[in-house]
């Protein structure tokens, strides 16, 4: 059976400008599971405390489809696997799958590790043997395999044989430097199959802009596992992009790697990960980008309106995308209906409400709002359009002071807020480590008297992005807030040319969503009244 192996949470985080918090990684893992990924590589527990915390956090989470894998290196030279700290950390992560990498290229064996070629083989064999008796699955990543093969094919194959004989469940051939070309992958894969009888995988980097092509060629040549990252995130020029590989495998190569329904979620999860990365979405990304099915030229538009196949290689809806005509953008009613169904909001396909929601959504998106990663704000928007959104409080005003008295002292922030709840006016103030923190503290302080459950809400993450424009420091900003109450997590968004106002919008949505979901849960749990016999 074909396996998809995602390494966004480990290899993807090695990309420049990308850093995920533990909470980010948990949210992404859950979305990868929902997408239907078979294995999720969570990180290298022997390298940093954050990955250790992630694996601990995931113990209380239940994945429906995916198996969580930890990642690390073979044992160090001169000691046995049972005594190696890295190996111990892998086992302490308590994952049922472990991926371990070893050297295939003599250059690395002799110059980087500075061990003999024989010792390197023993390091591979000893590490896998030790792990295989303790976990269900052990995958071997043959690092720099293609470069090693080109220098000394016989030795590179010996490293694979050592891993296979030790019990590795998959031998993954890695183009770690990313410089191998597709025709080379095909030739080398064929030779590997002549000498090694074992399940093979591919792990490609994109330094020659060939990672996706190399992965697909490897599959064509017999690989039954593909490793990659969402949006191609990864060190240097990135890794093989699963957002391109998955639809190519399913729609073009006939490999049923995920279901049709899950494939439709591909664009959403791609954008979700961009948001949590605090990076702008790459609009020209194949399959899932805004421009992937956008048409501007007159001849193209004329043809595609008559038959989309004239200029579209797949139906965009298959990957959760949509066709766009840039002169007059086609409406996205189906997207609204899909989200309404997802949130349990009853909107009929022919309802005027769909048009109302769509119109408001277009206005808000023009202002800079994006709802990927801000699901709670979108649900509140839907409720507002349905006139089902309750008003839990009314703002009467707030003021934020950020003062720095001395050059060598940190700034001092204080927020004062005045609001009304059911005719009762609350006026309070709070201090914070910054203006947003102070505002958040003051808002909670004012509302907790009326809504005690808000004490459970924690601000887990706060991201600010300056939106593209020519206004410089007066440009609009988008604030993305992640909140949680110990049971659930949710994202909210705010946009303004004032960072405090944008933060206020996101913070208010966060607390209103908590109140809304608690009341909704209470209504669902309330027993239905029985009709009494007259």
Give keywords.
534 residues, alpha/beta, TIM Barrel, Double Stranded RNA Binding Domain, 2 domains, 8-stranded parallel beta barrel, 3-stranded antiparallel beta sheet, 18 helices
Outline the structure in words.
The protein has 534 residues and is an alpha/beta fold. The protein has 18 helices and 16 strands. The strands form 4 sheets. It has an 8-stranded parallel β-barrel with strand order 1-2-3-4-5-6-7-8, surrounded by 9 helices. A 3-stranded antiparallel beta sheet has the order 11-12-13, covered by helices on one side. It has a 3-stranded antiparallel beta sheet with strand order 14-15-16. Strand 3, helix 3 (85-92) and strand 4 (97-103) form a beta-alpha-beta unit. Helix 6 (145-151) crosses helix 7 and helix 17 packs parallel to helix 18 (499-525).
Topology overview:
Blueprint: E1 3-6, H1 22-35, E2 39-43, H2 49-58, E3 67-73, H3 85-92, E4 97-103, H4 106-113, H5 117-132, E5 137-143, H6 145-151, H7 153-166, E6 170-175, H8 182-195, E7 200-204, H9 211-220, E8 225-228, H10 242-252, H11 260-263, H12 266-276, E9 294-295, H13 298-306, E10 324-325, H14 333-342, H15 352-367, H16 375-385, E11 394-403, E12 412-421, E13 424-432, H17 435-447, E14 458-466, E15 477-484, E16 489-496, H18 499-525
Parallel strand pairs: 1-2, 1-8, 2-3, 3-4, 4-5, 5-6, 6-7, 7-8, 9-10
Antiparallel strand pairs: 11-12, 12-13, 14-15, 15-16
Helix pairs in contact: 1-2, 1-12, 5-7, 6-7, 8-9, 17-18
């Amino acid at each position: 059976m074909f396996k998809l192996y995602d390494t966004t949470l480990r290899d993807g985080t090695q990309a420049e400008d990308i850093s995920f918090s533990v909470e980010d990684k948990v949210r992404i893992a859950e979305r990868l599971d929902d997408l239907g990924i078979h294995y999720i590589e969570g990180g290298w527990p022997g390298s940093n405390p954050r990955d250790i915390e992630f694996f601990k956090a995931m113990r209380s989470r239940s994945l429906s489809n995916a198996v969580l894998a930890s990642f690390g290196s073979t044992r160090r030279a001169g000691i046995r696997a049972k005594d190696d700290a890295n190996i111990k950390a892998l086992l302490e992560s308590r994952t049922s799958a472990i991926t371990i990498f070893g050297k295939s290229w003599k250059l690395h064996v002799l110059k980087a590790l500075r061990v003999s070629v024989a010792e390197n083989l023993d390091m591979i064999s000893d590490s896998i043997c030790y792990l295989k008796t303790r976990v269900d699955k052990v995958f071997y990543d043959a690092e720099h395999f293609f470069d090693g093969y080109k220098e000394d094919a016989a030795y590179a194959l010996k490293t694979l044989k050592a891993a296979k004989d030790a019990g590795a469940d998959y031998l993954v051939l890695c183009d770690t430097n990313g410089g191998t070309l597709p025709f080379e992958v095909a030739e080398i894969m064929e030779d590997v199959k002549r000498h090694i009888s074992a399940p093979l995988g591919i792990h490609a980097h994109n330094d020659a802009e060939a990672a996706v092509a190399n992965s697909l060629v490897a599959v064509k040549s017999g690989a039954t596992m593909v490793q990659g990252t969402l949006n191609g995130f990864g060190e240097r020029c990135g890794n093989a992009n699963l957002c391109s590989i998955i639809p190519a495998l399913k729609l073009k190569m006939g490999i049923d790697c995920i279901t049709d329904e899950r494939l439709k979620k591909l664009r959403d999860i791609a954008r979700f990960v961009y948001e949590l990365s605090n990076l702008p979405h790459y609009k020209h990304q194949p399959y899932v980008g805004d421009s992937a099915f956008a048409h501007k030229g007159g001849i193209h538009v004329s043809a595609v309106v008559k038959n989309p196949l004239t200029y579209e290689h797949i139906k965009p809806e298959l990957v959760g995308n949509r066709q766009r005509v840039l002169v007059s953008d086609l409406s996205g009613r189906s997207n609204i209906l899909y989200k309404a169904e997802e949130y349990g909001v009853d909107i009929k396909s022919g309802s005027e409400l769909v048009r109302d929601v769509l119109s408001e959504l277009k206005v808000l998106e023009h202002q800079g709002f994006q709802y990927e990663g801000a699901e709670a704000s979108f649900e509140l928007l839907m409720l507002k359009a349905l006139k089902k959104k309750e008003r839990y409080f009314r703002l009467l005003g707030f003021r934020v002071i950020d003062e720095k008295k001395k050059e060598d002292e940190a700034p001092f922030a204080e927020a004062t807020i005045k609001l009304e709840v059911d005719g009762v006016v609350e006026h309070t103030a709070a201090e914070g480590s910054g203006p947003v923190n102070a505002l958040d503290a003051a808002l909670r302080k004012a509302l907790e008297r009326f809504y005690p459950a808000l004490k459970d809400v924690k601000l887990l993450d706060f991201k600010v992005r300056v939106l593209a424009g020519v206004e410089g420091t007066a440009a609009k900003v988008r604030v993305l807030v992640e909140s949680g109450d110990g049971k659930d997590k949710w994202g909210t968004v705010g946009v303004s040319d004032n960072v405090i106002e944008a933060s206020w919008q996101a913070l208010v949505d966060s607390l209103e969503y908590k109140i809304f979901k608690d009341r909704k849960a209470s209504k669902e749990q309330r027993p239905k009244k029985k009709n009494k016999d007259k």
